[in-house]
Write a structure and sequence with these properties.
Blueprint: E1 2-8, E2 17-22, E3 25-32, E4 35-40, E5 54-56, E6 59-61, E7 68-70, E8 86-87, E9 89-92, E10 95-100
Antiparallel strand pairs: 1-10, 2-3, 3-4, 4-8, 5-6, 6-7, 9-10
The chain binds FE2/S2 (inorganic) cluster (FES).
């Protein structure tokens, strides 16, 4: 497990949304209210970008067909689509990032 720093906390306000591409990983770091989320940048249904996706009730809503994905598990809310990758947000010092398995 290793920490991958994405941004400094001082840069992040409520409503923050930023896409990162690191090797083959493409993800979005977001802050809504007091909560931070990190999730795959592309919808698993038909590869719609999630840069502008709405987040509510710990769910990200794809703007193309309005499928919702849990930001805790990545699961499609209605249960018939593949899951969205989600990542554990972690803080170290003044940085925020994700925990990677290796
Ligand atoms: S492309 Fe995202 S719900 Fe269809």
């Amino acid at each position: 497990m290793r920490f991958l720093a994405l941004d400094k906390l001082i840069n992040i306000e409520d409503g923050y949304r930023k896409r990162f591409k690191i090797d083959s990983l493409e993800l979005i770091l977001a802050k809504e209210g007091d909560e931070f989320f990190a999730f795959g940048a592309v919808c698993p249904h038909q590869e719609q970008s999630l840069d502008e996706a709405m987040i509510e009730n710990q769910t990200v809503i794809c703007p193309r067909h309005n499928f919702g994905f849990s930001l805790q598990s990545g699961a499609h809310v209605e249960g018939f689509c593949s899951s969205l990758p989600v990542y554990t947000v972690h803080f170290e010092g003044n940085e925020v990032g994700i925990i990677l398995a290796s």
